Amino acid sequence: MMIKLLPKSAAILFSVATSLVFTQACAQEPAETITADALRADVQEWRNWFFATHPDPSFSVDVDLLQARFAAVAASLEGEYSRREAWLALSILNPVFNDGHIAIRAPQNDYDAYIAAGGADFTLPVAFEGGRLTVAPSVSPDSSFEAGDEILAINGHSATEIAGRIMQRMNGDTGGLRAYLLETRFPLYLWTVTGGGESWDVNVARPDGHQRTIRIDPVRDTSVESNDRWTLEFRDVTAVLTINTFMPDLEEAFGEFLDTSFAAIAEHDAENLIIDLSQNGGGAHQLSDRLFAYITDQRYTPLSAVTARIVAENQALIPGSEIGQVVSVPFAQWVEPPAELDNRFDGNVAILVGPGTYSQAIVMAVTAQDFDIAPVAGPGTEGRANSTGQVQLYRLANSGLEVAAPIYIFIRPSGDRSSAPVVPDIPLSGTRDEQISQLIERLGHQGN
Predict the structure, then answer these.
(1) What are the DSSP calls for 321-337, one per residue?
(2) What is the mean pLDDT of residues 139-161?
(3) What is the pLDDT of residues 73-89, one digit of tens each?
(4) Are strands 402-411 and 388-395 parallel, antiparallel or unpaired?
(5) What is the DSSP letter of 121?
(6) By three-state DSSP, how is residue 97 classified?
């Protein structure tokens, strides 16, 4: 059966919660509250919608455990809840799904309102490993904090407890992915736990054991990491192309960036190209196809099979299908790069991946592997090589919280159906810069 697939889903859904609710001074909660009975109705609505949307929950979920957890959460509800508190109560389900595309999403609008009302933003970058929060290596050199400082407490509350409770309620395929999401969206998560504050006092310990408490300065105590969508840099004869998103609404701008970048790579006479997808949370295949065209003229397909839930959105693409039906078929979606393309790169290419590589970025990495277009390097991914996609959003009637679930399951081109992450051809460890340096050396040897 011939199926034309819809574009892959957008980037990772960031969502987390905790049962800790502190009583420190904070911005006012939204005025509306939700009763326990109304929230129970939302739980039932969520459960019904999820099982009517996902094509095969057993792909990542222990279905019996999930059903039991839905029932337990509903039974535990009592009193009244703000939307933030409602999310705290329900998001205990997030890790049960074992998928970065499935979650009850944190109420971002309420967090934005808290910031707009003068609530303090937690600007200090953090790292999370082994149950401990530390100041991330990306902290500004002008900061009063130092990279590697262990964070012991935030506004007097145990940082270990805060992080632990967050992780217990985080969505994502694996613990590693959940830790990555905690690090990248920590200000939002901290607000969900505490309700926010007028300022943030952080107690830290230096490696020598010396402790100090510092109030965060939102101008000084920040990260120096670039948050640019895409960048190009040169390290001698190696071009490093960092691609942090494939979001579909950026396709035209991305095409212009690629045209300019590969012209510059050609002018520089670069011998090696590293495509860094280590912080790319995904997007649409149209953008990764544009990038592939600059490194290969080989015909390829990003998948070998698909399982799809039929909804109004895709029914017309599958003749004879019915709404609600689940279809599983072998399927290849062949892409033919242009035979000729100005400034196509013909040197050594490698794709760098990491814990932040997800969704369409994973699809690009496994396609490059399975068709020998380029080796994949790095520590590997925390998301599965076979992924879900085409995320649907649904707003619960009483709380207004959004839940998300995919309608597709994709199998990589090789046909390997395992639940394993992307295993790199060139294993690397260390910081991003250290990995790039190692990879440059490896690529240089290929040219000898």
Answers:
(1) --TT-EEEEE----B--
(2) 96
(3) 999 999 999 999 999 99
(4) antiparallel
(5) P
(6) helix
